[in-house]
Amino acid sequence: MRRPRLRRPRIRDILGFLVSFVIALIGAVGVILFFESRDESQLEGPREEPGEVYRGEPVLSPGLEDALAKGNVVVLHRDSPVAAETAELAEGAGPRLRDIGLAVLLEPEPTLEAALAAIADGRIQVGDSPDEIRNFVDFHLGP
Q1: Does the global pTM surpass 0.85?
Q2: Computed over its alpha carbons, how large is the radius of gyration of the chain?
Q3: Distance of CA 48 to CAs 36, 44, 63, 120, Å?
């Protein structure tokens, strides 16, 4: 049995291969760009911390300072009883969440100038409604 002889590739064969390769490459890039254009996720860059530096006013009890040290957010409120919208901020804050630093703790503070003040991580956000401090709470407890 004779072995077939290998022939040298012709220009026509090489051009056919290159054209096929370029078309396949363009198709692959097109598919990637199609799915990339539909992807709405974004990489988060450094986020600006909301609120101002907490300088010790209003003064917190040692128990609240311990809660802040664990990572909890303390929301001080001027009015008693606490408004329903404000109470929603602390919804589901059981002892386990307090222990691991993922709770919102409500505490009355009649000397506040504003209706509410949220304190966490050495920062304070003052507001007259829960909507004004919600971004601060979400930032410090995570999404």
Answers
A1: no
A2: 31
A3: 27, 11, 28, 15
What's the token pair of residue 29? 């890039």
List residues bridging with 77 in a β-sheet: 108, 116
* CATH number listed for the domain at residues 52-141: 3.40.30
Cis before 58? omega within 30: yes
Task: Give the number of other Cβ atoms within 10 Å of residue 4's Cβ.
Answer: 6
Cα gap 104→137, rounded to integer Å: 8
**CA-CA distance, 23 to 9, in Å (whole number)?**
21
Query: What CA–CA distance (Å, rounded) separates 7 from 127?
Result: 83
Average pLDDT over residues 104-111: 91
